[in-house]
Design goal:
Blueprint: H1 8-98
Protein backbone atom coordinates (compact mmCIF):
# COMPACT_ATOMS: atom_id res chain seq x y z
CA UNK A 1 0.00 0.00 0.00
CA UNK A 2 1.47 3.31 -0.98
CA UNK A 3 2.08 5.86 1.71
CA UNK A 4 -0.18 8.37 0.04
CA UNK A 5 -3.10 5.96 0.42
CA UNK A 6 -2.84 6.04 4.22
CA UNK A 7 -5.02 8.71 5.73
CA UNK A 8 -2.88 10.09 8.54
CA UNK A 9 -5.57 12.52 9.51
CA UNK A 10 -8.01 9.71 10.39
CA UNK A 11 -5.45 7.99 12.62
CA UNK A 12 -4.62 11.22 14.43
CA UNK A 13 -8.28 12.06 14.90
CA UNK A 14 -8.96 8.56 16.27
CA UNK A 15 -6.05 8.81 18.71
CA UNK A 16 -7.15 12.29 19.74
CA UNK A 17 -10.70 11.06 20.29
CA UNK A 18 -9.35 8.22 22.45
CA UNK A 19 -7.28 10.68 24.46
CA UNK A 20 -10.27 12.98 24.94
CA UNK A 21 -12.41 10.04 26.06
CA UNK A 22 -9.69 8.92 28.50
CA UNK A 23 -9.35 12.47 29.82
CA UNK A 24 -13.10 12.68 30.24
CA UNK A 25 -13.20 9.41 32.16
CA UNK A 26 -10.29 10.52 34.31
CA UNK A 27 -12.00 13.85 35.01
CA UNK A 28 -15.21 12.02 35.91
CA UNK A 29 -13.31 9.72 38.27
CA UNK A 30 -11.65 12.70 39.92
CA UNK A 31 -15.01 14.45 40.34
CA UNK A 32 -16.53 11.31 41.86
CA UNK A 33 -13.57 10.99 44.24
CA UNK A 34 -13.92 14.66 45.22
CA UNK A 35 -17.64 14.18 45.83
CA UNK A 36 -16.97 11.09 47.97
CA UNK A 37 -14.33 12.97 49.95
CA UNK A 38 -16.70 15.90 50.50
CA UNK A 39 -19.37 13.53 51.82
CA UNK A 40 -16.81 11.85 54.07
CA UNK A 41 -15.59 15.25 55.29
CA UNK A 42 -19.17 16.29 56.06
CA UNK A 43 -19.76 13.11 58.04
CA UNK A 44 -16.50 13.56 59.94
CA UNK A 45 -17.31 17.19 60.63
CA UNK A 46 -20.70 16.22 62.07
CA UNK A 47 -19.05 13.51 64.16
CA UNK A 48 -16.47 16.00 65.43
CA UNK A 49 -19.23 18.48 66.34
CA UNK A 50 -21.08 15.78 68.29
CA UNK A 51 -17.88 14.76 70.04
CA UNK A 52 -17.11 18.39 70.96
CA UNK A 53 -20.60 18.76 72.43
CA UNK A 54 -20.10 15.56 74.42
CA UNK A 55 -16.80 16.89 75.74
CA UNK A 56 -18.54 20.03 76.97
CA UNK A 57 -21.25 17.93 78.67
CA UNK A 58 -18.68 15.73 80.37
CA UNK A 59 -16.62 18.75 81.43
CA UNK A 60 -19.69 20.11 83.19
CA UNK A 61 -20.38 16.74 84.84
CA UNK A 62 -16.75 16.29 85.88
CA UNK A 63 -16.66 19.78 87.38
CA UNK A 64 -19.75 18.97 89.42
CA UNK A 65 -18.32 15.62 90.49
CA UNK A 66 -15.03 17.25 91.41
CA UNK A 67 -16.82 19.73 93.67
CA UNK A 68 -18.83 16.92 95.29
CA UNK A 69 -15.64 14.89 95.77
CA UNK A 70 -13.91 17.81 97.48
CA UNK A 71 -16.92 18.29 99.73
CA UNK A 72 -16.99 14.56 100.54
CA UNK A 73 -13.28 14.63 101.41
CA UNK A 74 -13.89 17.57 103.77
CA UNK A 75 -16.77 15.65 105.38
CA UNK A 76 -14.54 12.58 105.70
CA UNK A 77 -11.80 14.61 107.37
CA UNK A 78 -14.34 16.15 109.77
CA UNK A 79 -15.74 12.69 110.56
CA UNK A 80 -12.23 11.33 111.19
CA UNK A 81 -11.54 14.23 113.56
CA UNK A 82 -14.82 13.57 115.36
CA UNK A 83 -13.95 9.87 115.70
CA UNK A 84 -10.56 10.79 117.16
CA UNK A 85 -12.20 13.16 119.65
CA UNK A 86 -14.68 10.45 120.65
CA UNK A 87 -11.85 7.94 121.13
CA UNK A 88 -10.07 10.43 123.38
CA UNK A 89 -13.28 11.08 125.32
CA UNK A 90 -13.83 7.32 125.63
CA UNK A 91 -10.32 6.87 126.99
CA UNK A 92 -10.91 9.66 129.54
CA UNK A 93 -14.22 8.11 130.64
CA UNK A 94 -12.67 4.65 130.90
CA UNK A 95 -9.75 6.08 132.87
CA UNK A 96 -12.14 7.83 135.30
CA UNK A 97 -14.20 4.68 135.68
CA UNK A 98 -11.16 2.58 136.53
CA UNK A 99 -10.10 4.86 139.42
Amino acid sequence: MPLTAVDVDVGVKAKFADLVADAGLFALRVLLMVHAMEKKHGALEAKYKDAAENVEKWKYKVTGMDARLKEALKDKKAAENEVEEMKEAKEVVEAERNF
